[in-house]
Write a structure and sequence with these properties.
111 residues, binds zinc ion
Length: 111
Protein backbone atom coordinates (compact mmCIF):
# COMPACT_ATOMS: atom_id res chain seq x y z
CA UNK A 1 0.00 0.00 0.00
CA UNK A 2 1.45 3.37 -0.95
CA UNK A 3 2.10 5.93 1.76
CA UNK A 4 -0.29 8.84 1.39
CA UNK A 5 0.02 12.54 2.06
CA UNK A 6 -1.16 13.43 5.57
CA UNK A 7 -2.75 16.75 4.60
CA UNK A 8 -6.47 16.79 5.37
CA UNK A 9 -8.55 15.65 2.38
CA UNK A 10 -5.48 14.95 0.23
CA UNK A 11 -5.15 11.43 -1.07
CA UNK A 12 -2.00 11.84 -3.13
CA UNK A 13 0.94 9.54 -2.84
CA UNK A 14 3.53 10.95 -0.43
CA UNK A 15 6.84 12.04 -1.93
CA UNK A 16 8.27 13.94 1.01
CA UNK A 17 8.92 13.07 4.64
CA UNK A 18 10.03 14.73 7.84
CA UNK A 19 9.93 13.92 11.55
CA UNK A 20 8.01 15.16 14.53
CA UNK A 21 7.69 14.12 18.15
CA UNK A 22 4.97 11.60 18.92
CA UNK A 23 1.77 12.72 20.63
CA UNK A 24 0.79 11.05 23.89
CA UNK A 25 -1.77 8.97 22.02
CA UNK A 26 0.85 7.84 19.48
CA UNK A 27 3.27 6.94 22.25
CA UNK A 28 0.91 4.45 23.91
CA UNK A 29 1.19 1.68 21.27
CA UNK A 30 4.89 2.49 20.64
CA UNK A 31 5.73 1.98 24.32
CA UNK A 32 3.54 -1.12 24.51
CA UNK A 33 5.45 -2.62 21.58
CA UNK A 34 8.80 -1.71 23.11
CA UNK A 35 7.80 -3.24 26.44
CA UNK A 36 6.68 -6.45 24.73
CA UNK A 37 9.98 -6.60 22.86
CA UNK A 38 11.96 -6.02 26.08
CA UNK A 39 10.02 -8.72 27.91
CA UNK A 40 10.77 -11.11 25.05
CA UNK A 41 14.48 -10.22 25.05
CA UNK A 42 14.72 -10.71 28.81
CA UNK A 43 12.77 -13.99 28.60
CA UNK A 44 15.33 -15.41 26.16
CA UNK A 45 18.03 -15.09 28.78
CA UNK A 46 16.59 -14.36 32.22
CA UNK A 47 19.85 -15.27 33.99
CA UNK A 48 21.85 -12.72 32.10
CA UNK A 49 19.45 -10.26 30.47
CA UNK A 50 20.84 -8.29 27.53
CA UNK A 51 21.48 -4.59 27.88
CA UNK A 52 18.46 -2.88 26.38
CA UNK A 53 18.00 0.63 25.09
CA UNK A 54 15.81 2.95 27.18
CA UNK A 55 12.07 2.84 26.61
CA UNK A 56 10.86 5.25 23.98
CA UNK A 57 9.45 8.53 25.20
CA UNK A 58 8.49 11.86 23.72
CA UNK A 59 12.11 13.04 23.74
CA UNK A 60 14.02 10.11 22.22
CA UNK A 61 11.88 9.03 19.29
CA UNK A 62 10.13 10.67 16.38
CA UNK A 63 7.32 9.70 14.07
CA UNK A 64 7.37 10.27 10.32
CA UNK A 65 5.13 12.84 8.65
CA UNK A 66 4.37 12.38 4.96
CA UNK A 67 3.31 14.84 2.30
CA UNK A 68 2.85 14.94 -1.44
CA UNK A 69 4.60 17.45 -3.70
CA UNK A 70 1.68 19.85 -3.30
CA UNK A 71 1.79 19.81 0.49
CA UNK A 72 5.46 19.59 1.30
CA UNK A 73 7.03 22.02 3.76
CA UNK A 74 10.13 24.06 3.17
CA UNK A 75 13.25 21.90 2.77
CA UNK A 76 15.00 23.77 5.62
CA UNK A 77 12.06 23.15 7.93
CA UNK A 78 12.00 19.49 6.99
CA UNK A 79 15.54 19.06 8.36
CA UNK A 80 14.26 19.81 11.87
CA UNK A 81 12.33 17.65 14.29
CA UNK A 82 8.91 19.20 14.79
CA UNK A 83 6.81 19.36 17.93
CA UNK A 84 4.11 16.78 18.60
CA UNK A 85 1.57 19.59 18.22
CA UNK A 86 2.77 20.52 14.71
CA UNK A 87 -0.15 20.31 12.28
CA UNK A 88 1.96 20.28 9.09
CA UNK A 89 1.20 19.51 6.32
CA UNK A 90 -1.66 21.90 7.04
CA UNK A 91 -2.40 23.81 3.81
CA UNK A 92 -3.12 26.94 5.87
CA UNK A 93 0.55 27.19 6.89
CA UNK A 94 2.41 25.77 3.90
CA UNK A 95 5.24 25.87 3.05
CA UNK A 96 5.70 26.59 6.75
CA UNK A 97 4.21 24.99 9.81
CA UNK A 98 2.69 26.13 13.08
CA UNK A 99 5.24 24.85 15.59
CA UNK A 100 8.64 25.88 16.78
CA UNK A 101 10.87 23.08 15.45
CA UNK A 102 13.75 21.81 17.54
CA UNK A 103 17.22 23.15 16.74
CA UNK A 104 19.33 20.98 14.47
CA UNK A 105 21.59 18.53 16.28
CA UNK A 106 25.27 19.50 16.35
CA UNK A 107 27.14 18.24 13.28
CA UNK A 108 28.71 14.82 13.53
CA UNK A 109 32.39 15.36 14.45
CA UNK A 110 33.40 12.74 11.87
CA UNK A 111 32.03 14.86 9.03
ZN1 LIG B 1 -1.02 16.30 -0.31
ZN1 LIG C 1 6.36 22.15 12.71
Amino acid sequence: MPILCMAVDCGNRATFQWQRRPTDAELVPIIAMAEAWRAEMIATNPENPPRLPPLPDATNITVPVYACAEHEIDMDLACHTHQATCTAPNPANLPGCDCDPEPLPPPDPQD
